[in-house]
């Protein structure tokens, strides 16, 4: 009996010799590198709880459009099966697909120049995806503002059960902080509908980018792309930089210099940075709770993100004036 990956290979290639290697990335799906006749591809078995046919269709449409219209970076493209399909349905209920393999290494953000290049990529990505036209009938994925819809097993009831009886050690202080963040978001009145919306990648961290010769050349992992508040993209990557640089204002200003060379925002959007930060981290934590209930070990990732949320929220409060000044200076029209 064929393994899921053997079934996937048979759907895409006729009687070929191949080599499969593991990858150091891919926490949501099961991913392998496939090599045939000196050519490399990415094989992916999608998480059945988080990837639907509509989700693959959306990812394929966006990456194909970017590939055809954008020179700034490359994206993985879905190959067609022998039956001209973009994916296959496996017996256990999950979906599988093969995409192109992109060359490059994970970029570093150790210098101001690297931070500027990171910002330029994020701003450029956001500006180009903003041009996508959508109608009311297109599938738009799940907005992070719908934090109880991020994972089908992370309902308000299951999250409450998780917090009341954590399956692994979490300090009382962190649990109380997590509850406070949830209450802050729920009590915000969700004033975000008036802000500009567009498709947002939601995961433009250095780990999902590829670089060559100190230039970011590839964008990976479109699993969480969905229609959301446009400023969410900047918020997520900015928080990533704050964490990676330990709050260096030199690095933050370089990031904003690069970002603003490609994309601007309004003062109204910038005013929602704190709320969007809370929503982003809570949604990621809820996703990990869903993964826990799906039988996946999440302790390390969950604690890491919860601690990062606490540190970043504290940093944003302590440095609010200086950061807001930089945001207005660089981003406002």
UniProtKB/TrEMBL annotation:
Native source organism of the sequence: Paenibacillus amylolyticus
Domain of life: Bacteria
Keyword field: Kinase, Transferase
GO molecular function: amino acid kinase activity
Spans through the membrane: none
Protein name per its UniProtKB record: Ser/Thr protein kinase RdoA (MazF antagonist)
The keyword RNA-binding is annotated on this UniProt entry: no
All residue ranges annotated as the Aminoglycoside phosphotransferase domain in the record: 21-247
Family under the similarity heading: Belongs to the pseudomonas-type ThrB family.
Taxonomic lineage: Bacteria, Bacillati, Bacillota, Bacilli, Bacillales
Record InterPro entries: Aminoglycoside_PTrfase, Kinase-like_dom_sf, Pseudomonas-type_ThrB
Keyword flag Signal: no
């Amino acid at each position: 009996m064929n393994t899921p990956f053997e079934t996937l290979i048979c759907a895409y290639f006729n009687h070929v010799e191949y080599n499969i290697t593991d990858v150091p990335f891919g926490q949501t799906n099961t991913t392998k590198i496939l090599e045939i006749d000196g050519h490399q591809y990415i094989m992916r078995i999608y998480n059945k709880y988080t990837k639907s046919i509509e989700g693959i269709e959306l990812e394929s449409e966006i990456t194909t459009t970017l590939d055809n219209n954008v020179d700034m970076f490359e994206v993985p493209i879905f190959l067609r099966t022998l039956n001209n399909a973009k994916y296959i349905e496996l017996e256990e209920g999950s979906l599988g697909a093969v995409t192109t393999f992109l060359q490059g290494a994970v970029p570093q953000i150790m210098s101001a120049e690297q931070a500027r290049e990171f910002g330029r990529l994020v701003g450029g990505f956001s500006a180009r995806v903003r041009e996508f036209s959508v109608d009311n009938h297109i599938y738009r994925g799940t907005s992070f503002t719908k934090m109880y819809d991020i994972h089908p097993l992370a309902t308000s009831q299951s999250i409450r059960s998780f917090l009341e009886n954590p399956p692994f050690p979490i300090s009382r202080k962190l649990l109380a902080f997590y509850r406070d963040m949830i209450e802050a978001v729920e009590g915000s009145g969700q004033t975000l509908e008036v802000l500009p919306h567009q498709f947002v990648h939601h995961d433009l961290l250095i780990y999902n980018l590829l670089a060559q010769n100190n230039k970011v050349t590839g964008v990976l992992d479109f699993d969480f792309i969905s229609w959301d508040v446009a400023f969410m993209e900047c918020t997520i990557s900015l928080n990533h930089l704050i964490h990676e640089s330990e709050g260096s204002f030199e690095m933050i200003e370089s990031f904003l210099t690069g970002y603003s060379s490609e994309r601007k925002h309004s003062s109204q959007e910038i005013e929602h940075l704190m709320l969007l930060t809370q929503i982003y981290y809570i949604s990621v934590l809820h996703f990990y709770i869903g993964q826990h209930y799906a039988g996946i070990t999440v302790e390390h990732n969950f604690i890491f993100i919860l601690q990062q949320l606490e540190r970043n929220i504290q940093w944003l409060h302590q440095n609010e004036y200086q950061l807001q000044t930089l945001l207005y200076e660089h981003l406002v029209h």
